[in-house]
Design the sequence.
């Protein structure tokens, strides 16, 4: 059994990361949902700045800031999830009492599958539009930024403890 880390230690470590990273990490690990709007707005703003800098007026995403904000909420939800199938709890099989069968939801992989259609439905957007303009932003920029916040946490742990 892993020892529980005291809250004073966590506060000490979080003092060594940026405000954006601290807000996301408090949301993810402490369940502080009061900062989720700030996290989503900062994430969408960061992507808007990158798009404006790299593509200028040619970027389609600059015309749809609400789409980017909704995409940021999806990214936060994806980064916060554990990725395990909710039906079989990551086992890949279901015990029927007589025999074990492969999970019908994840097809035996144990991983939750949130495909392009499900994400497009969450965004109330066309699947083509999501694949063309939103998928790379979600996977590369937004989830990458949120993963870098976790990297900041691990670096702060290593440096401060």
Sequence:
């Amino acid at each position: 059994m892993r020892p529980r880390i005291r809250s004073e230690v966590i506060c000490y470590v979080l003092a060594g990361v940026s405000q954006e990273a601290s807000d996301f990490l408090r949301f993810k690990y402490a369940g502080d949902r009061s900062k989720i709007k700030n996290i989503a707005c900062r994430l969408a703003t960061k992507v808007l700045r990158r798009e404006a800098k790299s593509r200028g007026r040619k970027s389609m995403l600059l015309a749809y800031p609400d789409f980017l904000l909704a995409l940021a909420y999806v990214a936060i939800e994806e980064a916060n999830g554990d990725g395990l199938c909710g039906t079989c709890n990551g086992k890949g099989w279901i015990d029927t009492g007589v025999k074990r069968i492969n999970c019908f939801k994840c097809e035996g992989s144990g991983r939750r599958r949130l495909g392009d259609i499900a994400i497009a439905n969450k965004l109330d957007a066309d699947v083509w539009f999501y694949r063309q303009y939103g998928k790379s932003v979600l996977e590369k920029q937004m989830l990458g930024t949120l993963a870098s916040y976790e990297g900041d946490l691990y670096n702060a742990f290593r440096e401060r403890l």
User: Anything to note?
Assistant: The mean pLDDT is 81. The chain is about 60% helix and 5% strand. The two ends are 20 Å apart (CA to CA). The beta strands are 93-95, 100-102.
